[in-house]
Design brief:
Shape: elongated
Low-confidence stretches: none
Distance between the termini: 15 Å
Radius of gyration: 16 Å
Mean pLDDT: 88
Structural class: mainly alpha
Number of helices: 6
Number of domains: 1
Strand content: under 5%
């Protein structure tokens, strides 16, 4: 196996792993919705915002910006920054003390995760 082929295979495995983690992360809030609602005393509307809008709107909008950035700057650095933001805000979700903090943290998770799909498309097309 050539070095280029090994690199492409490693890249595919790493991007697939990152996407699987992102997918699980998106589902996790829905899985723990009832305990979170009870813990924070959330209304159904607030719970909807946490499981949907706070994440999805940010993720969808910034996915476009991420693609633009990936086309113009170093892809590896942007992916690393995205995963760093994602990790930081995932930890922030765990220490949130209020609905507002948790909503901001979920939006931050969406910000970091928004890099994964455009990055995968860009990096795979180059490999």
């Amino acid at each position: 196996m050539t070095d280029a082929r090994k690199h492409s295979s490693r890249l595919l495995v790493l991007l697939s792993g990152a996407y699987c983690l992102a997918f699980l992360d998106r589902l996790m809030m829905a899985v723990v919705a009832q305990p979170v609602q009870a813990e924070f005393g959330l209304s159904d509307r607030q719970l909807f915002l946490l499981t949907g809008a706070a994440f999805v709107l940010v993720y969808g909008s910034l996915g476009i910006l991420s693609g633009w950035l990936l086309d113009r700057f170093n892809k590896s650095i942007i992916v690393a920054l995205g995963m760093g933001v994602w990790s930081l805000f995932t930890a922030a979700c765990g220490v949130s003390q209020s609905f507002t903090q948790l909503a901001i943290a979920r939006a931050g998770v969406g910000t970091g995760e928004s890099v994964i799909v455009p990055a995968a498309m860009a990096l795979i097309s180059e490999a």
